[in-house]
Amino acid sequence: MDKLRNYDVSFSGLKTGKHEFRFEIDKEFFQLFDTEQEFTNPRISVDVLLDKHSTFLEFEIKVNGTVELVCDITTDNFDYPIENEIKVLVKFGEEYDDSEEDVITIPSNDHAFNVAQLIYENVALSIPMKKISPNVSDEDLAILEKFSPKENEEEPESDPRWDALKNLKNKN
User: Fewest C-beta atoms under 10 Å: which of 9, 28, 42, 103?
Assistant: First the structure.
């Protein structure tokens, strides 16, 4: 948990207004989370813009960089560009609460806000479900199409036992 402190944004000594913070993210950052990643070799820069107000904080977190993915078709590694942005409103209250989508409540006596989880989620949401390398050839795609299951567009034949019931429904 101490390593996540590197991602604390201290706001207690800051004046009201806009402030910028920058973080460089690599594989060590993702190792702080006990989850398995679908990517390797992340090279990501994170720009955090804090707009401090007297009663709340506005965070804008932009991630920009690349990660290495494994192509689902060819199993070759390729670099995938990551570019995403999220906005979060942080307000003060009794206790920590992140049950709302874009609003996080932190205790009134906190002096810093940790952005590590938001950065992690921002990057994770940027990874596509289908990982297809830009180097996939038309030949590979043709082979994939050849062996893909075909959709059956034929309408199933109706069961004659139910046809009589359908006629009853249509009469009413």
Answer: 28
Query: CA-CA distances (angstroms) from residue 130 to 18, 80, 127, 137?
Result: 38, 12, 9, 16
Nearest to 29 by CA among 5, 59, 50, 62: 5
Find the length of the chain: 172
**Structural tokens at position 170:** 């249509």
156, pLDDT greater than 60: yes
Query: Does residue 61 contact residue 115 with C-beta atoms inside 8 Å?
Result: yes
Side-chain half-sphere CA neighbours of 109 within 13 A: 2
User: Are the C-beta atoms of 123 and 42 separated by less than 8 Å?
Assistant: yes
Helices (H) and strands (E) in the chain, counts: 4, 7
Question: b/e map of 110-128 (b: 16 or more CB within 10 Å)?
Answer: eeebbbbebbbebbeebee
